[in-house]
């Protein structure tokens, strides 16, 4: 029943084969979607080469640089979507960043510049991407972002990223309210801790994963592909009545009090 054949999907945030975005891209492709990929450019082209080789089996129709701190580059990437496909159906936002020094120690020690950068990349970027995707979603669409429990509850060493995720979840609600009349749905997936390049910056990530394995009802954490399955569902007509929601994919950990 889950069929995304003919749907055009842009996936952001793939860094390597451990990325949650990679799990999502694989499941969208398996469901039949046409895949487009953005990557973070760097001076030596290392990210471009690494991501290009990884996603090659998905035969991406679009492969473009997109640094979300550069509005011109964001707009250029979506001009390529317009040129190649003419319309967009699915936007996957898997972008987050904070300086390592702002992910440990006292939260009150967060620098002004670090706070601004974390919210610009991790939170505002969803709003910016939604704004440029909106005119291309002429037949409705689905926008999905990634959150984490640290956006609603205190998690050690998450610090400024918790504030960013709280803002991201509220952005989902405001965007859902704005875009709903155009049949564009906006949702977030709050995934359990997974060992990724991004999560490796969080101190004690392995302890967090082991704790979830001991406490979560399913007695394990989740995989990138499980998050990908939920993203594919939220991208499909099976989820046509769901918008503005934060869906927990965390082996049930969020329900536990102790």
UniProtKB/TrEMBL annotation:
Substrate binds at residue 98. Pathway: Lipid metabolism; fatty acid biosynthesis. Gene3D superfamilies: Enoyl acyl carrier protein reductase, NAD(P)-binding Rossmann-like Domain. SUPFAM superfamilies: NAD(P)-binding Rossmann-fold domains (SSF51735). InterPro entries: Enoyl-ACP_Rdtase_NADH (IPR014358), NAD(P)-bd_dom_sf (IPR036291), SDR_fam (IPR002347). It is an enzyme of class 1 (oxidoreductase). Homotetramer. This is Enoyl-[acyl-carrier-protein] reductase [NADH]. It comes from Merismopedia glauca CCAP 1448/3.
């Amino acid at each position: 029943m889950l069929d995304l054949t003919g749907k055009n999907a842009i996936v952001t945030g793939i860094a390597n084969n451990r990325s949650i975005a990679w799990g999502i891209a694989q499941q969208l492709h398996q469901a039949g979607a046409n895949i487009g990929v953005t990557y973070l450019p760097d001076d030596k082209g290392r990210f471009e080469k690494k991501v290009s080789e990884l996603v090659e089996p998905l035969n991406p129709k679009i492969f473009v640089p997109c640094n979300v701190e550069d509005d011109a580059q964001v707009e250029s990437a979506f001009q390529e979507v317009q040129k190649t496909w003419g319309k967009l159906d699915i936007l996957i936002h898997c972008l987050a960043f904070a300086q390592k020094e702002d992910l440990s120690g006292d939260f009150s020690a967060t620098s002004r510049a670090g706070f601004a950068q974390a919210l610009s990349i991790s939170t505002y970027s969803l709003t910016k991407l939604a704004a440029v995707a909106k005119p291309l979603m002429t037949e409705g669409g689905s926008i999905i972002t990634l959150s984490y429990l640290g956006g609603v509850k205190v998690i050690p060493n998450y610090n400024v990223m918790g504030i960013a995720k709280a803002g991201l979840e509220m952005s989902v609600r405001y965007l859902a309210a704005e875009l709903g009349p155009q049949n564009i749905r906006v949702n977030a997936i709050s995934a359990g801790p997974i060992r990724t390049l991004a999560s490796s910056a969080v101190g004690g990530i392995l302890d967090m994963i082991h704790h979830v394995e001991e406490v979560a009802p399913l007695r394990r954490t989740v995989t990138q592909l499980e998050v990908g399955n939920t993203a594919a569902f939220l991208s499909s007509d099976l989820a046509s009545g769901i918008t503005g929601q934060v869906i927990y994919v965390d082996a049930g950990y969020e329900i536990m009090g102790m």
